[in-house]
């Protein structure tokens, strides 16, 4: 049985988590963290969304994002942020 699609937020806020498979590290060193932050800044400049908070750890990442246009979260995640990892 497949998982049901998540519903869009009425407020536009999303808590997003990326995790490494089997606790595998996403970031090996400081340069990896810096690359991710720089890439995120570039993506944010190209797309309309707000970053309210983030926490980068070696094997997972948390974001609190707000989309400015309903439904943009799909574009933000699939076409942009996931390409950084």
From TrEMBL:
Record PANTHER family: TRANSPOSASE IS200-LIKE DOMAIN-CONTAINING PROTEIN, TRANSPOSASE, Y1_TNP DOMAIN-CONTAINING
Protein name: Transposase IS200-like domain-containing protein
Source organism (scientific name): Sporomusa acidovorans (strain ATCC 49682 / DSM 3132 / Mol)
Gene3D superfamilies hit by this protein: Transposase IS200-like (3.30.70.1290)
Domain Transposase IS200-like, residue spans: 9-84
């Amino acid at each position: 049985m497949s998982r049901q699609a998540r519903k869009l937020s009425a407020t536009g806020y999303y808590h997003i988590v990326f995790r490494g498979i089997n606790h595998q590290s996403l970031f090996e060193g400081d340069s990896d963290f810096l690359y991710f932050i720089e890439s995120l800044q570039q993506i944010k400049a190209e797309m309309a969304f707000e970053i309210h908070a983030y926490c980068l750890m070696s094997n997972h990442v948390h974001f609190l994002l707000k989309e400015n246009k309903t439904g943009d979260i799909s574009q933000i995640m699939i076409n942009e942020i996931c390409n950084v990892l």
